[in-house]
Amino acid sequence: MGSGGFTPAAALNVFVEAYEAARTVAELIRIYRDYGPRDTRTRCRLAFLIEEWGIDRLRQELAARLRRELEPAGRDMRRSGHADHLGLSPQKQPELTAVGLCVPTGRIGPEQIAELADLSDTYGNGQVRCTTGQNVILVNVPKHRIEALLKEPLLQQFSPNPSPFFRKLVACTGADYCNLALIETKRHAMELSRALDQRLGKDFAPMTIHWSGCTAGCGNHQAAELGLRGCRTSIAGKAVDAVAIYVGGRTGPNAVAGEQILDTVPCDEALPSVVAGILQQRALIKNSRLQSAVCAASSIQPESFSRKQHAEARFTSATGRRDRQPPRTAAASISLPKTTKAMLCRLDELSSGTGQKMTVMGKTLAVFVMEGQVIAMDAECPHEGGPLYEGTVERGCIVCPWHGYEFELHTGRCDTDPNLSVRRYPTFIEEGDVWIDLKDESIHR
Q1: 169 lies in some domain
Q2: Which domain holds residue 416?
């Protein structure tokens, strides 16, 4: 993430039994010890040796040291999704729940730590766990204590259901406590996310937003859908905080480095407008791609949409222009056929077996992933309006948290009362994006 920028791991294509793991790792370390670069401190990394050698030579050297042929790795068993552990997650132990709390930018004070410990003693078994997203989890909470826990004052500060611009927000230590950082990351991160909430509302799906205070990249800014790297610039002869902006990064089996689209944007009152414009333009471009696919599939001829209009739909900075005006929307220049299809979220934002609440085109939905299939249904239980997205998944059914009514995820039928059903909506996945058709799906389908 630091020296040399974002470098996705290269597959060594080796299958290792558990008893072989320690020796294999030791030999890899020895290979780096013997051949790794030493010329420059910033290049003392295994990544640069792999860059020089290539993965095939590294594999051959490892085989020579282990004195045996290396078995191929086989199928990649990593999951494509990433769980952020926020909200209510049923544990494997019966009647116990893990409650993930969002700690904005990971900053927590001594009084809040003491209160968190008290809540863990009162509602759990004294254990608190931390996540890679700078959040915390209260574990081993009995289901019958959940309602009381959710009313605790600390959960109003550390929400289990935060806004999409805080849910996956990460910020490095910043200039407060790091002598390498060029800007104060955490304050700017909070201010920007609050402003995006006000401008864009809660209709946006949760997205990864990572802040790094300098090129060292401790906030992993190039691994996020929206990354911001701290820098400094001069306005009227005065040095001020600024950021370089990256988009489109992600980790996992299909890792992609975020692309820098803006170089130096001051962290002033115009920054939220600039970032909001970028997010709106990216959503617009994704929707236009979907519309083209829909038109092709249904033999609909869209109205003329020229190369010039495509170019105008992109943010002006992509062409190298450096004006500080907020990006204008290109919605007026695009005319496409009306559709009930819309982008729901990224596939890696969903966790298997755990429901999420999402709002698309004014409709609130409960969204689940079961056996690799994304299932979207109305968010409220038809019995008395219970929040189905907070229910537990059992035996292929979602169980309403209020009165225990069970609905089959694949049909929407109610196993408890045959007269009730929940509307489901078709979904499909395109390049890691989950799309939904808001036309009602028959419950018998």
Answers
A1: no
A2: 342-437
Beta-ladder partners of 346: 433
Q: What is the per-residue pLDDT for 202?
A: 66
Q: Which pLDDT belongs to residue 307? A: 36
329 with 355, same domain?
no
pLDDT (0 to 100) of residue 242: 95
Same domain, yes or no, for 2 and 42?
A: yes
- Does residue 222 fall inside a structural domain? no
For residue 395, the domain's CATH number is 2.102.10.10
Q: Are residues 312 and 346 in the same domain?
A: no
* Residue spans of the chain under pLDDT 50: 294, 297-338, 441-445
6 φ, ψ (degrees, to nearest 5):
-70, 120
**103 in the same domain as 70:** no
| 233 in Cβ contact with 240 (< 8 Å) | yes
Classify residue 359: in a domain, yes or no. Answer: yes
d(CA 175, CA 214): 9
Judge if 289 and 362 occupy the same domain: no
pLDDT at 384: 80
* Angstrom distance (rounded) from CA 226 to CA 224: 5
Q: Give the pLDDT confidence score for residue 333 in this predicted structure.
A: 34
Would residue 171 count as lying in a domain?
Answer: no
Q: Please state whether the predicted TM-score (pTM) of the whole model is above 0.85.
A: no
- pLDDT of amino acid 275: 94
